[in-house]
């Protein structure tokens, strides 16, 4: 049997990528009876029934599942920002971080367009997030600098890129893998995907090994879906203080004897991060009032 990863699903066909080819597979009947929904990203074993055809016999256990879009086994989210144009700021980064934290995936912060930026300002911003424990990569896709560490992080893993429009996600991917756009084009032509066909997420293989989720209009869940007590867990640096708050239900807002607020005052938690927390907490509460 051959082992591979489903890179695309179309009608009842699954395109399974092995080391050197893609096979168009159907699913063994017994899986259909179990109503098991196979997803892009699932690892499977199949028997070849032709040169590029097969039948899926085994589905390996899932490591993770991203809900929007539905993709199995995504390992990490690469949050991509532009240093300049659109300008990066902590409020923006924190919003994306909250959504990324809710997805439960590993997070890498990638700051692109460093060719346009003031290095000192950038280092300060990068430092803020590095101290919390997030890996921060500085790069310029246009000048082809700083791409190697990103390439290494993508190696052998399934990654999804997210970030504001114009941050340079497509440019980065093209710089990393010049053939990528072309490959997608070819695959679409094969199955005759027209303009009006619904687009599902698919995986784009990287020549170095690993995949990138291709997701037009990729969206995390909305903030409004988040319960207030869940929000604080999206700020990993709060954790080591939160246990010392007087109230176990402390939301670190107006409660007395709050260890998180005290840590902010003492400079152990960055005030900007705490501001972001309060801003989103307020939004969540406002949204709930409407119901
Ligand atoms: N100066 C500079 N410009 C860049 C760099 N990377 C990308 N750009 C430019 O930024 C603009 C936006 O880049 P895209 O790659 O389209 O951004 P995107 O994140 O894919 O945007 P969406 O598709 O809207 O999500 C383009 O005009 C790029 O040429 C960089 O490293 N330096
Ligand atoms: Zn508290």
Automatic annotation (TrEMBL):
Residues 72-219 form the EngC GTPase domain. GO terms for cellular component: cytoplasm. It comes from the Bacteria. Its EC number is 3.6.1.-. It is found in: Cytoplasm. One of its GO terms (molecular function) is GTPase activity. One of its GO terms (biological process) is ribosomal small subunit biogenesis. GTP binds at residues 112-115, 163-171. Residues 63-221 form the CP-type G domain. Monomer. Associates with 30S ribosomal subunit, binds 16S rRNA. This is Small ribosomal subunit biogenesis GTPase RsgA. It comes from Dendrosporobacter quercicolus.
């Amino acid at each position: 049997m051959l082992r591979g990863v489903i890179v695309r699903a179309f009608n009842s066909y699954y395109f399974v990528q092995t080391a050197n080819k893609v096979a168009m597979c159907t699913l063994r009947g017994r899986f259909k009876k179990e109503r098991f929904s196979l997803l892009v990203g699932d690892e499977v074993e199949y028997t070849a029934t032709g040169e590029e055809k097969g039948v899926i016999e085994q589905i390996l256990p899932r490591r993770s599942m991203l809900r929007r879009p539905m993709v199995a086994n995504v390992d990490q989210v690469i949050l991509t920002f532009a240093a300049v144009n659109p300008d990066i700021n902590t409020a923006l980064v924190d919003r994306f971080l909250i959504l990324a934290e809710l997805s439960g995936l590993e997070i890498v912060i990638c700051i692109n367009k460093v060719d346009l930026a003031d290095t000192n300002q950038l280092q300060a911003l990068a430092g803020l997030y590095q101290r919390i424990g997030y890996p921060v990569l500085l790069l310029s896709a246009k000048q082809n600098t700083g791409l190697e560490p990103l390439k290494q992080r993508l190696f052998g893993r399934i990654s999804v890129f997210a970030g504001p429009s114009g941050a340079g996600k497509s440019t980065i991917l093209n710089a990393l893998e010049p053939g990528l756009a072309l490959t997608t084009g070819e695959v679409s032509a094969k199955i005759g995907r027209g303009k009006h066909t619904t687009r599902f997420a698919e995986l784009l293989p990287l020549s170095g090994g690993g995949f990138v989720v291709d997701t037009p209009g990729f969206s995390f869940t909305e903030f409004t879906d988040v319960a207030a007590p869940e929000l604080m867990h999206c700020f990993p640096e709060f954790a080591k203080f939160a246990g010392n708050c007087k109230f176990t239900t402390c939301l670190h807002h107006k409660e007395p004897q709050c260890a998180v607020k005290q840590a902010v005052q003492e400079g152990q938690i960055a005030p900007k991060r705490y501001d972001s927390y309060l801003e989103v907490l307020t939004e969540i509460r406002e949204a709930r009032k409407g119901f």
